[in-house]
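Write out this protein's structure.
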Amino acid sequence: MPTMGGLLVLLVSLLHLINPSLAYSLKNCSIDYSDNPSADVFVSCSSHELVTVPDDIPRAAVSVLIRNNHLEKINRGDFGGMSKLRVLDFEDNHIAHVDDGSFIDLVSLRVLSIEENKLTNLTANTFQGLSNLTILLLGNNQIEFIHPSAFRFLSSLQTLQLESNRLQQVADIQAVLQLPNLKNLRMGFNLFSSFQTKDLPLNMSSGLKVLDVSSRKLQAFSITTPIFPQLEVIHFFCFSHVPILKWDIPDKTLLRSITQLYFSLPSMSFVRIQKVLQSLDSLMHLRLNCVNRWFRKGLLATICKIPTLRKLDLSYNHLHNSTVKLVACSQLCELDLTHTDLHELPKGSIISMKRLTSLSVGTNWLTKVPDDIRRLNSLEILDLRGNLISDLSCEDFLNTTRLTDLCLIENRIAKLQGCVFEHLNDLKVLDLSHNLLWTFGGAFKTGLQKLEFLDLSKNFLTSLHNEDFQGLQSLKRLNVTSDYIDRVKHNAFDGLNNLETLLLSLPLDYESNFTRLQHLENLTIYFKIRESFQSPHPGWYNKALFQLKSMKVFKVCSGNHYGFPFDVLADMFKTMIHLEDFTAINVYVSALKPEIFQFNSQLKSLKFSMTDLSDLDPRMFDPITNLQALDLSECKLKSLDFLAKANLPALKFLKLSDNEIMTINEAVFQSLPALTYLDLNNNPFTCHCSNAGFIQWVKSNNQTQVVNAHQYRCSFPVAEQGNMLLDFDTQTCWMDINFLCFISSTCLVLLTLLMSFIYHFLRWQLVYSVHYFLAFLYDSRKRKIGAAHCYDAFVSYNVHNEDWVYKEMLPVLEGEQGWRLCLHHRDFQPGKPIIENITDAIYGSRKTICVISRRYLQSEWCSREIQMASFRLFDEQKDVLILLFLEDIPARHLSPYYRMRKLVKRRTYLSWPQAGQHPGLFWQKVRRALQTGDAPAETTDLLTGPAQL
């Protein structure tokens, strides 16, 4: 019977064959690769030191393995919405509690394992929702209490493992035995002192077929009620040499269905075991392990009297040659004597077994094939592995003509005779691996007409000769790998016309010709370079060109650490037009030619490992656009830029582990639209902004799973060593240098355009604003100081109007009217900045008189004076500005001085040309303007005086 662990592995494997899949990257788990993107999701979170169930497990997963972690509790909601889950495994954790309803959403779950944890009790709702569960593994916990209703939801349960817990009495499992579909119950190594059906309700009936009641303390095994009408298998494994176990089954009718009984170290007396065996009228398979004392008392005689017995397993016993007395067991069909310390099988021991079809005498001390085997013409399977057999004679298999499977692994056979297998015409499997063979002696030239599998690996073969295998016309699989082969003759494989799989070792300068292996689909070659080998003669390999037109899988490996030039084998690919899978491990040191795979358009899987591909030419991938899996692990790759240039539209699986990749440009993966699985383990990543894009891509993409990405660590810089790659803060890296250059250049262009526009159209307004601001500052300062006025008026004029000022204005205003005027040619302080002189003059005078002409408007300093004076006018709201126009100037010419233009349109001003013949009236108006106070009345114009003259 298979173990529970093996059963679980088998079930998971079967699920993998149905529909494995992957979808995205996970923090603490990985998703098994599948070449079918729509297939089921298989998740593994094992051995990650987890303390809680990961929250990013895909809800569509069908299998989740969380083995060997540190979980202490299963919470309700950990598996919410996972309605497709079929296998859930928590083996080897520290789980002590399971929330009620934790599995309520797992309506499709078939297998649940919580083995090797710390559960102490099972509540009424622990397994709520698991109506389709068929296998439940709870072994190696500390369960001591099971609620009577704990299993009421498990209506489909067929196998339950409760071994190695702390259950004390049969009543504890009453609810288990009431399960309608339960077939297999393993409850060994609990604290039961007895297993008696009288402790259960009389009317109870169970459909159980397999019962394991192994125990260290079991004293009584009693079936006195018809509770197990279908029971077929009983296991006892007791770990006690004290005969304390009492077997009590008074009614033989209760045992009619028992066909298999397994005893290991049973604590039962010899008399009792005899009675047990005598009471089992239907027993077909008996296993007795570690029961040496029973054999010394002659138990084999009792065993051989069981008329229905067909299979006897005596493995793991210490059988003296004298105790092996199986002459009377003529009814046996299968006999297992593995690990029984036999040095020989005495003559006549098994010769009477005319029905024997399977015999295993492996892992003993036999030095030759037992003589009795020669007469077992019914034998089909013979296992002699792990003995000390050194010679095979022609009589060893003389009469075993029905043999189909012969295993001679791990013996000391050094040579074969031509007649040794000549009578084995029905043999299909022959395994001679791990021996000392150095010659075949023509053993494969006759007989073995139906042989399909031949394993000759790990021997001391140094050469393969012409037509060594010419008689094996039915052979489909051959393994002749060896560390010692240094010569293969030209016709060594002649006759293998139906060979489909070949594994062999070859020297680099081999002579063999494979042209006749037209059905070969799978070839694995292990090359070995002799120390004396320098380089092949040009064209030497042309004589041995492979004409393998049916080849689909090709693997080449080199046992030497330095490998050899791969171009030596390049010509082989020309005829392999159906090649789908190629692997090369440690086979070359020079760069591959771009045209290497030009004839292999059907290639789907490609692997190079333990070699130097740092100069890989991406053109190599051009002919193989159907490639789905690429493995370049341990290839000294420093960059992935070649992928951006490679044409790989169908690539789904990419493994780049154990390389020298430090930085990755995420744009590389844009050229791989079908990529779903990426392995970059064990690369020296740099935690730098150069990897920011890749880090963000790993976190955000929803198609490609980057396996174990959350465990990638930084190798550079030194300050980041040991930190997690995905923990690197990428926020500071988003200001791209190119983008900054673009922004800077754009701003510079815009600034240049703006300055040009301002200079051409708004330069005067800008100048005015500057002076306006300076005047504001000066005014604020003067207000704080409270400075007194030094002049009655500051006269602002252009140098070209200086004659008019001195001849017309000064004689009247200073000479006749007595006003004190400030003139820049006369009153400005030498050495002081001009702008300060202007500001001091304007704010040091009660009024400002602007003598305006066309030249005045064109003067830079005059414009500053009038702008500052107008600022004072509007800032202080005082009547401080007098405009005297010496010329008639249209308002449109005042546009650069928009404030003055506004004043001219809204207020009166004095015009010298309009004074005409009345200059006296003009100067009288000026006098009146100078006499007015600083604070204007509500109805007084800021430009004091009559209407324009």
